[in-house]
Write a structure and sequence with these properties.
Blueprint lengths: L24 H10 L4 H13 L5 H40 L19 E2 L5 E2 L13 E4 L4 E5 L8 E4 L6 H13 L7 E7 L4 E8 L4 E5 L3 E6 L4 E4 L1
Parallel strand pairs: 3-10
Antiparallel strand pairs: 1-2, 4-5, 5-9, 6-7, 7-8, 8-9
Length: 234
C-alpha cells in the first residue's frame, strides 16, 4: 500500500547500528603471541565490518598498539637478560683471575720473627706492643718468596718482595709503587695494580706494619718494607 501524500516514513536504522561490532580480542591475542601474524584477524574483521557498514579502523588500532607493546616488552627483556649475563661473567672472571705463575699455589703467611700474628696478617709483639720502625725491624721472607728490588732513592717503603711463588716480581713492584703513590706510610689501605704477567688489574688490600703485607687477586702476596730493614730467609 502506497503511503498517502504528506505521510513521513520512519527513518531507517543507520548502517553502523545494524549489528554488534566484531570483537578485537582475536587481533590482540594473535598479535601478542605471534607478532606480525596479527594482521590476519585484523584484515578479516575489518572486511566483515566493512560489509556490514560498520567502522573498521578499530582493528588496525588494536593491532598497532598491541604490536608496539610487544616490541617494547621484548626489547626490555633482552636488555635485562644481557645485563644479568654480563654481570655474572664479570663476577666469574674476577673470582677466577689471579696474579700467579702457578694458579694452584696457596697463599703463605709471613712469619713474624718472635711476634704474634692475627688472622688479618697484622703483626705485633706478644705483649701487645707495636711493630718496630724501619731500621730496627727484621723481615722474614718465606722460602718460596724473594726480594725483588729497591726503588730508586730507597726509603721506609721502597723494597718490594713477593710472599709466595704465585706472585710475580713485576706485579709486586707495581703494588709497591701504587702504595707509595697513596702516601700510605705504613698504614692499612687498598691499592689497584697492573700485572704484566696476566695483563689485568687487581685490587690489593694492604695491612700496615713492618712489613706492609698486601694480598689480593687469588693468591698474590706482596711485602713492602724499608731499604734499611734486615731481611732474613726461611
Amino acid at each position: 500500500m502506497e503511503p498517502s501524500p504528506g505521510t513521513s516514513l520512519p527513518p531507517s536504522r543507520p548502517p553502523s547500528q545494524s549489528g554488534r561490532l566484531p570483537s578485537r580480542a582475536p587481533t590482540i591475542i594473535i598479535t601478542l603471541f605471534f607478532g606480525i601474524f596479527g594482521v590476519i584477524p585484523a584484515a578479516v574483521q575489518t572486511s566483515h565490518s566493512a560489509r556490514r557498514g560498520m567502522t573498521t579502523n578499530r582493528y588496525w588500532k588494536a593491532f598497532g598498539w598491541t604490536m608496539a607493546v610487544s616490541i617494547v616488552s621484548s626489547i626490555a627483556l633482552i636488555a635485562l637478560f644481557w645485563a644479568v649475563l654480563i654481570g655474572a661473567l664479570s663476577r666469574s672472571d674476577s673470582g677466577a683471575s689471579s696474579d700467579a705463575y702457578d694458579s694452584n699455589a696457596s697463599t703463605l703467611a709471613v712469619p713474624s720473627q718472635g711476634q704474634g700474628q692475627d688472622e688479618l696478617g697484622t703483626t705485633g709483639d706478644d705483649d701487645g706492643s707495636s711493630t718496630p720502625a724501619a731500621g730496627d725491624a727484621v723481615v722474614v721472607v718465606p722460602a718460596d718468596g724473594k726480594v725483588c728490588d729497591t726503588a730508586v732513592g730507597g726509603g721506609d717503603w721502597s723494597v718490594a718482595a713477593i710472599g709466595n711463588a704465585a706472585t710475580s716480581c713485576p706485579f709486586a713492584k707495581n703494588v709497591r709503587d701504587a702504595y707509595n703513590t697513596l702516601e700510605a706510610a705504613g698504614s692499612s689501605t687498598s691499592v689497584h695494580a697492573y700485572s704484566p704477567v696476566t695483563h689485568k688489574w687487581y685490587r690489593m688490600d694492604c695491612v700496615g706494619g713492618m712489613p706492609v703485607r698486601c694480598t689480593g687477586g687469588k693468591h698474590a702476596v706482596v711485602l713492602i718494607f724499608g731499604s734499611d730493614t734486615t731481611v732474613e730467609h726461611e
